[in-house]
Design goal:
Layout (H helix, E strand, L loop, with lengths): L1 H14 L5 H55 L16 E4 L12 E8 L19 E5 L4 H7 L8 E4 L3 E4 L2 E3 L4 E6 L11 E12 L14 E5 L11 E5 L1 E10 L45 E11 L20 E4 L2 E3 L7 E9 L6
Antiparallel strand pairs: 1-2, 2-8, 3-7, 4-5, 4-8, 6-7, 8-9, 9-10, 11-12, 12-15, 13-14
Length: 360
């Protein structure tokens, strides 16, 4: 009986025994390994998502900048009155960064473009039709003229275009009665709701650090659009796309080579290199465009090259915060190469745009 009781006691003791120290240490080590692996996967996934979001944002900014610039290039010269408006002595005013040699920075350009408001109670449209007898005053929708004034309309300085068919200087305005004094000769006439456009000289340029005017809102570089030198109001130069690092423009023209058709435009792009084919050499850069026959009114095609970079650098996929990817040197055009950037990725977009209104 005593032996049986002793055997039962030993069995209970064996069943109640815990983990040994070695087993506990092994378990802890396994747990640490699993947790470290999970943390690494979580960190890597999070940083991968951030990197993908940054490149998507960069590509989006690049496409937005290109679409806005292309739109205005196509509209440049719409309703051109044939006189200087602001800094626009021509529908397109190229500004190569270094007209006489290799560029060391972005180009810029100024464009004569129409501005309007097509919807709303104060839309910029005629309220009263005109007659074939001509008119010296037009009446717009209520509030339209006041809205145009806030957008830059100035008597004796501004020009408006009615439907793109007639362009006239505004000699006087009455915001309360929504009238503009303009000279429309007979037999031109217009119907109610015909659109009114205010012609403006808009500049596109890339702003890099240090950005003293804070046009980029603290996020340089950026692409700005607006009337050159205007700092307040709807026409002020303002950022339209962040991360735009470079803008390079090249132009093809018709009538720029005296040896071709005596320099007379013949609706065929000038063959600059005599290759008998249209190629990259037919796009001109490093040209002042101030001496005939190389004048802006001959421009027929514009090649736009935009480069965007990430606003923030990517970080290492592990637990460190060291940048792991960047951009090497990038040839944007034949006369401009961006230096390597070890901390930012870049994207480039190039488009050729046919001008529609230049020279009309």
């Amino acid at each position: 009986m005593v032996v049986e009781r002793h055997r039962l006691s030993l069995c209970r003791t064996a069943r109640q025994a815990g983990f040994t120290l070695i087993e506990i240490m092994i378990g802890m080590a396994v747990a640490v390994i699993v947790m470290a692996a999970a943390f690494t996967i979580l960190t890597t996934t999070s940083k991968s998502l951030q990197a993908n979001e940054r490149i998507v944002d960069t590509q989006h900014n690049l496409r937005v900048a290109m679409e806005l610039l292309v739109r205005d290039l196509k509209l440049a010269g719409f309703g051109n009155p044939g006189v200087a408006i602001g800094n626009c002595t021509n529908p397109i005013v190229p500004a190569d960064q270094t007209p006489t040699g290799v560029d060391s920075g972005p180009d810029s350009v100024q464009l004569l473009v129409p501005t309007t408001r097509a919807t709303g109670s104060n839309r910029w449209t005629l309220k009263i039709a005109t007659t074939t007898a001509g008119t010296s005053q037009i009446t717009l929708q209520t509030g339209a003229v006041a809205d145009m004034v806030t957008s830059g309309l100035v008597a004796n300085t501004s020009y408006v275009s009615i439907g793109g068919s007639a362009t006239a200087q505004v000699t006087a305005l009455d915001a309360s009665n929504s009238t503009l004094n303009v000279a429309i000769p007979p037999p031109l006439w217009f119907q109610a709701e015909d659109q009114i456009y205010l012609l403006q000289c808009i500049r596109y340029r890339v702003v890099s650090a240090p950005d003293p005017g804070n046009l980029c809102g603290g996020v340089t570089p950026c692409l700005t659009r607006g009337v050159a030198g205007v700092t307040t109001g709807p026409n002020a130069e303002a950022a339209i796309a962040e991360g735009i690092e470079d803008l390079q423009l090249a132009y093809s023209c018709d009538g720029c080579v005296t040896a071709i058709n005596s320099g007379i435009p013949d609706h065929v792009i000038d063959d600059q290199n005599g290759s008998n084919t249209f190629d990259q050499a037919d796009f001109l850069s490093n040209v002042p465009w101030t001496t005939a026959p190389l004048t802006p009114d001959k421009i027929q095609l514009v090649q736009v090259a935009l480069v965007a970079r990430q606003s923030k650098s990517d970080q290492g996929f592990g637990e460190t915060n060291r940048a792991f990817v960047g951009s090497g040197a990038m040839v944007v055009t034949g006369d401009h190469t961006l230096p390597a950037d070890s901390t930012h990725r870049r994207r480039m977009l190039v488009r050729s745009v046919e001008t529609r209104n230049v020279g009309l």
